[in-house]
Amino acid sequence: MRLKFLLPAVALLFEASRLSAAAGNLTLQNNLTFYGDNTEFFEPFRLRETNLGQQLESFLKAETGIHTSVRGGIFANHRSALDSSTEVLPILSFIYKTPESEGIFGTLLPVKRHGLIEPMEITILELTRPIEYGMQWIQDDEAVQADLFLNWQHLLTASSREIFDYGGSARLYCLPGVALGAQAHCYHVGGASYGGVVRNNFVGGVGLILESQIPLLGKSSLEAFGLLSNDTARPAYPGPVNGAGFYAKGTFSPLDHWEAFGIAWVGKDFMSEEGDGNYNSFGYDGVFYKSDRNYEEAGIRYSVALDPGVIFDFEIRSHWIEDAWAHSFRIVATAPFNVDVDITNKKSQHGDTKPLRTDSDATDK
What we know:
There is one protein chain. The protein has helices at residues 6-20, 125-128, and strands at 26-40, 49-63, 68-78, 87-97, 101-108, 132-140, 144-154, 162-175, 178-190, 199-214, 218-232, 242-253, 258-268, 292-307, 310-321, 324-342, 347-350. The chain is globular. The chain has a domain at 39-53 and 103-339: Porin, CATH 2.40.160. 5% of the residues lie in helices and 58% in strands. The protein has a 16-stranded antiparallel barrel with strand order 1-2-3-4-5-6-7-8-9-10-11-12-13-14-15-16. By secondary structure, it is mainly beta. Mean pLDDT is 88; it is low at 20-24 and 347-365.
């Protein structure tokens, strides 16, 4: 447990209370997440994994002006019933907001991996890395939806390399239900000081997104992206530096709360550091390599609000990895609860229950 990180969080809580005293506008926002995720992979591209744990986000959000606010608190993650240790990290953010945009500096609370598709960032990051540290810009208007970020994962020291990733996703709506898409993600390891290897992994591409309401199939979407990858200076990397792939995903919602989806992928020498290994040509053991790749995935998702803001999600998936078949599933329950604190009257009362990541917190892309 990283208790030393709690000191700056506590300091910001006191500062937030002071700044908000005049307006009396202070909210304690909390979110509990209970999750189970299991993958049964035996192929060389992605290792099987089971995650079962609980998370807590708790922070005070203080409005410091018309366009600015701060939040400070803690994030706790208990990932295994067999391990009593709990990861505790600070939540410290400065937020600038207008009606159509939002800038965040400090702790980021990304939604759906900043909108990046599976070859860019693996979906398990939604559970294993639900908070990040860096900068983020979110744009949400009638024409453009975008989520751009810089996530600093590790500082450069004499004994370890610096690690950060950056990129984002964007949609440009040119016609009703039709959008042009762009995606980019770069993973960097290195640093100019202390010598050592400096390497980069870059993946980017453009695509087309179609959204519509189809009879019998309900709310539906189809997206297709052409992607390019570049991987440099990776030790003992057996493949070409450059690769490419084509990604297509269709979703359909024929019944309330239910969604069916399918993914098809064709790649050649594609390599993404933080993407799902099932899309890569490079195996997880650092040795196996297959230049031409085919991958398909199909699944069903059930999502329902048990109470206002309390969401239960269940997802089961089938995976066709070359000539092999595998399966996986995920269960997630989220329960937010907020408390409005009246600084002026020295009273606090429960506010309306609502989802945690709205308005100045995070926007699902």
